[in-house]
Amino acid sequence: MQLQQGILISIEGIDGSGKSTLAKNLCTELQKKKLPIIATREPGKTPLGQVLRTLVQEKKVGICPKAEYLLFAADRAQHFDEFIIPHLKEKKLIISDRMADSSIVYQGYGRGLDINMIKTINAWSMNDIKPDVTIYVRVSPNVAIERILKRKEKLTSFEKEKREFINTLFTGFDTLFKDQHNVIILDGTQTPEELTNYATEKVIQWLQNNKKIQ
Ligand code: TYD
Questions:
Q1: Strand, coil or helix: what is 11?
Q2: How far apart are CA 135 and CA 121, in angstroms?
Q3: Cα(105) to centroid of ligand 1, in Å?
Q4: With a 6 A CB cut-off, is 20 part of the ligand 1 pocket?
Q5: How far, in Å, CA of 130 to CA of 126, rounded?
Q6: Fewest CB atoms less than 10 Å from the CB: which of 169, 191, 192, 207?
Q7: pLDDT in tens, the chain (214 residues)
Q8: Could you tell me if the CB of 167 is within 6 A of ligand 1?
Q9: Can you tell me which atom of ligand 1 is nearest the CA of 73?
Q10: Which domains does the chain have, with CATH numbers?
């Protein structure tokens, strides 16, 4: 199946929402439908991004909120220059596990940085390109924390944050995505299969309704 143009889809949600599993499954399903899918993520897709990702996750040196945001913005700028823009030009359907909205929520709502400034720098880093569709996997902080603890992997610096911080992120995503067109809100307490089927159906519907499939 060919696309009329490149399409960018971001998947967002708090840590433990199940969005990374959904991103993977959604790619597999859409690939089965012969769509030109390409998966990516923020932070950490490019070689520079991998260095930045380790920096922000391990926090071995002090990083103030503004510097933290600018590291994510640097990752984003490199991601767009090296990966997103070239693939959009090749008319790919890009599925990104997190993107600019994570900065609005984690660094804006979460750390209290100026949201308008974040929006401005995000737009600049992204050459004014926005996701065509955003999938928001919504789960309560309780469910998310339970899942993170069950995984028993090494926690990232963000997962070690206090409960209050996670509540703020949850409210932040809800506020940001309320009444937004082109945001698909999924109930993250559904099974991975249910989530994948629903998201796949919604994406296909969006492509058809917006006449993006040839
Ligand atoms: P990662 O291990 O990729 O977590 P996840 O699988 O939940 O996406 O770590 C990325 C962390 O960085 C995650 O806790 C969210 C955070 N983050 C921000 O704070 N701001 C951002 O702009 C982005 C993209 C991620």
A1: strand
A2: 22
A3: 11
A4: yes
A5: 7
A6: 191
A7: 889 999 999 999 999 999 999 999 999 999 999 999 999 999 999 999 999 999 999 989 999 999 999 999 999 999 999 999 999 999 999 999 999 999 999 999 999 999 999 999 999 999 999 999 999 999 999 999 888 888 877 767 677 777 889 999 999 999 999 989 899 999 999 999 999 999 999 999 999 999 988 6
A8: no
A9: 22
A10: 7-209 (3.40.50.300)
